[in-house]
Design brief:
two-stranded antiparallel ribbon, 11 helices, five-stranded mixed beta barrel, about 20% strand, about 325 residues, alpha+beta
Length: about 325
Amino acid sequence: MQQPTVASLSRDTKFEGFLLVRSAEQRTSSNGGKYLDLTLCDTSGDINCKMWDGTVPPPKQGSVIKVRGTVQEYNGRLQMRIERMRTPAPEDDVDPSQLMPCAPERPESMLKEIHATIDRMKTPELQGILRELLKMAGDKLSYYPAAQRVHHAERSGLLHHTLSILRAAEKLLPLYPFLDGDLLRAGAIAHDLSKTAEFLSDEAGNVSDYSAEGQLLGHLVHGVAQVQEAARRAGVSGEYVLLLAHMVISHHGMAEHGSPRPPMFPEAEMLHMLDDMDAKMNEMEGVMRRTPVGAFSEKIWSLDRRLYHPRTHGAEAAQKAPASSDEQSYLGLL
């Protein structure tokens, strides 16, 4: 498929091509008219779209559609006004895996590295808890995103985020030898695993909604319960269970961000900083891809600011190429 990427779109440009449906619903405008509100994407990013024909039913989440439209700007953000939309025909020969945002590494490879890290640990209590937690996450871990919209909102994004934090921790541990390395590694692996129960995702990494557990408890509180259950299954008791549970419930750092307790020992504080850093860097990377060199982005609501794309990054970095079809062909989902 030869078509512009979402990240390359700019105001007043025309677009015609195939995109993946992240979300789609029919809404009612202030004047009582019906319209479609959609989020469409390819491997480079996503864009909000509006179709003002209220007779068109919303396409299925995770499906591929062909659209023709014009890119506009609304409240400082790019938005596409769709003029025509249809499902692909057989002769279009569309490969959905070429449109699917996914982690830059294969899930099997990332999981293998995480398991190898657990095997190298010298703390059997933490090894036992982590192995049970991974069993509890099951196959979902291979394709779940780390978030519905913000950071690592991609297929296998949860593994991508987890492994990035784990790798960063390994680099920092020699600088702070007083830290319990196994405890920090365990926190990095365990901190977000309960996201597999927090929201509902298909195998393409599209989140349709939050689960009952996600809405009533959230992944921090539910994560503590999972740590305790994993410890019970592994036959582990003692302080490591309490410490790991605290790292899970405090990794957002403060009550305003959802943590009932702030980090109260060094490994918990380090986990919070690594989690925050990785989430922000991943989101900023996406913003840089869609922001021209020398320009400012739209206001990023999760960061509460606009970002500048430095000229020193160069034009090539501004439009980073999406993963090749060979890199993504292993998905084979749709």
